[in-house]
UniProtKB/TrEMBL annotation:
Highest taxon above the source species: Bacteria
Name of protein: 7,8-dihydroneopterin aldolase
Organism encoding this protein: Phenylobacterium ferrooxidans
Its EC number(s): 4.1.2.25
Family recorded in the similarity comment: Belongs to the DHNA family.
SMART domains per the UniProt record, alphabetical: FolB
Cross-referenced Pfam families: FolB
Catalytically driven reaction(s): 7,8-dihydroneopterin = 6-hydroxymethyl-7,8-dihydropterin + glycolaldehyde
Length: 115
């Protein structure tokens, strides 16, 4: 099993349930870890291209306002599972401004397993 990961991906998204969060983008920091049965791969076509993670995250953000960080994480995990080779997706989404200046970030981590 190969673990493919992206850490510290910065995405601006319109996200949040409070009135002061609606209509404006705020930063998210995303970490993704994917399990892919591609040990020994020597060509990009034999594995999952980690650039897909950034593309999927930006596409989700571009769809418009999202109420909960949980929803963003779930959508990103499901987008990663769209590649049939991904058997597990762990997505962590941090919202750095959520509790500023009292905390560095708040957020969620979810794991979605195929099947």
């Amino acid at each position: 099993m190969t673990k493919i990961f992206v850490t510290g991906l910065k995405i601006d998204a319109q996200i949040g349930v409070y009135s002061h969060e609606k209509g404006k983008a705020q930063p998210l920091v995303v970490d993704v870890e994917l399990d892919v049965p591609t040990a020994g791969a020597e060509r990009l076509s034999e594995t999952v291209n980690y650039e897909m993670v950034g593309e999927a995250a930006r596409a989700i953000a571009a769809e418009g306002h999202i109420g909960l960080v949980e929803a963003f994480a779930e959508r990103l995990a499901r987008a990663c599972l769209a590649d049939h080779r991904v058997t597990r997706a762990r997505v962590r989404v941090e919202k750095p401004l959520a509790l500023a200046p009292h905390a560095a970030a708040a957020g969620v981590e979810i794991t979605v397993v195929r099947g």
